[in-house]
Write a structure and sequence with these properties.
J domain-containing protein, DnaJ_domain_CS, 2 domains, Helix Hairpins, mainly alpha, 0% strand
Length: 262
């Protein structure tokens, strides 16, 4: 009994080993490897799809100018226009892609953003890229915000970016309130002229009052000097006056004699 129990115990202990050896090796990748592979494939497919929605959608090279973009846009729009392909959903979807691609590539600012985004995505998806040192420029991924309907005609144009302000207040006021603005300007000029006139008039009045004060002082001084001379003549010494009068009399008498002799 002990021998039988020992054999049964040994068989049960060796059973997992026989089960593992009997299994065939599988070629499936580990779960984390499959996940990495699928993520990489999806990223690459997204990049390719994003590029097709722009340059490959219009069938132009990345170096194409606006003239080539416009010509290709007209050509493809006329081909896939919903009016020429009624009931064709693929043509309508293609027409939307063509309009979206042209509206993106025809704008210089959005085209630069799109090209930089594609370069960054390509560098991230490529297995041969190396880590670069130095400062990196953050690029915002491109996102199309324009939803173009199939009913839109091919002459649809997106508003171009401009440095000019959207609302010109001066022009609006001149167009709608020009006369009122001119009237206010005329009133302001008249008020300014009136202020300057009264200011000059006040200065002239102050100058006139000063001149009158100076003239009064000069007249009072002359009058005072004249009065001083008269008073001095009145109160002269009588003896001195008599001598002067006698001297004047003698001189006049001598002059009369000389005339008689002649």
């Amino acid at each position: 009994m002990r021998l039988t129990a020992t054999i049964v115990t040994a068989f049960l202990a060796m059973r997992p080993l026989f089960f593992v050896v009997s299994q065939k090796p599988t070629r499936q990748l580990p779960s984390f490897s499959r996940q990495c592979f699928s993520n990489r494939f999806i990223s690459s497919s997204r990049i390719c799809g994003a590029r097709k929605n722009h340059y490959q959608t219009l069938d132009v090279p990345p170096s194409a100018d606006k003239k080539a973009l416009k010509a290709q846009f007209y050509k493809l729009s006329m081909r896939y226009h919903p009016d020429k392909n009624p009931g064709d959903e693929e043509a309508s979807a293609k027409f939307i892609e063509i309009n979206e691609a042209y509206s993106t590539l025809n704008d210089d600012f959005k085209r630069r953003e799109y090209d930089r985004t594609m370069e960054v995505l390509d560098s991230k998806a490529s297995p041969f890229t190396h880590n670069r040192t130095g400062p990196r420029r953050t690029v915002r991924p491109y996102e199309s915000r324009d939803h173009i309907k199939p009913d839109d005609w091919i002459l649809y144009r997106r508003p171009q970016r401009s440095s000019r302000p959207i609302y010109d207040f001066g022009k609006h006021e001149q167009e709608h309130y020009g006369r009122a603005a001119e009237k206010r300007e005329h009133t302001r000029q008249a008020r300014l002229f009136k202020t300057l006139y009264f200011r000059k008039l006040q200065e002239a009045e102050r100058m006139e009052s000063r001149m009158m004060y100076v003239c009064a002082l000069v007249g009072f001084g002359v009058f005072f000097l004249f009065q001083s001379g008269l008073i001095q003549l009145i109160f002269l010494d009588d003896d001195g006056l008599d001598e002067d009068l006698a001297e004047i009399y003698r001189i006049s008498k001598a002059m009369g004699r000389n005339r008689e002799k002649d």
